[in-house]
Amino acid sequence: MIIFQYLSTIAAMLMLGITLASCTPTINKRGNTIEEDQLQQIKVGESTREDVAKLLGTPTQMATFDDKTWYYIGQRTEKEAFFDPQLKEQKIVTVEFTPEGKVASINKTGAELARDVDPIKDKTPTYGKDLTIMQQLLGNIGRPTVPKGKEGQ
What is the number of domains present in the chain? Predict the structure, then answer.
C-alpha cells in the first residue's frame, strides 16, 4: 500500500511538471537584431560599406532600386502554449550610404511602425466548370485520349 502511495505521488509530480513545462513560452528570434554598441562603432561620414558589413553583417534587405540603403530587420516573439505569438521586440536599422560608399545616416525604428494586416477573405474568381470530387475522379472513364501524332492511324 505504501508503494502505491509513493508511485501515485511521483506520477502526480510528473504530471504537474509536464503541465508547468508546457506553459513555458517559446521565444523566437528572427532576422538581425542590432545592438546599440554595434551602432556606436559606425561613424557617419567615415565608415564604409565594408566597415558596416564587418560590424553588422550582411543586410536583411537592400533598397529596391539602388544599393545605397541597407535595412537590418530583427524581431523577437513569444508564444505560450497554443496562443498566437506576441511581438515583444522589433528593431529596424536603416543605413544610408553616399555615392562614394560612406555612411550618410543611420535611422532606428521599432515596433511602433508595425501594423497588423487583415487578409481579405473574398474568393478569387476562377473560370471553368465547378466539378465535384467524384466528377473529377470518374470524369475521364470512357474518354480515351490519343497521344499527339497518332491521330488517324
Answer: 1
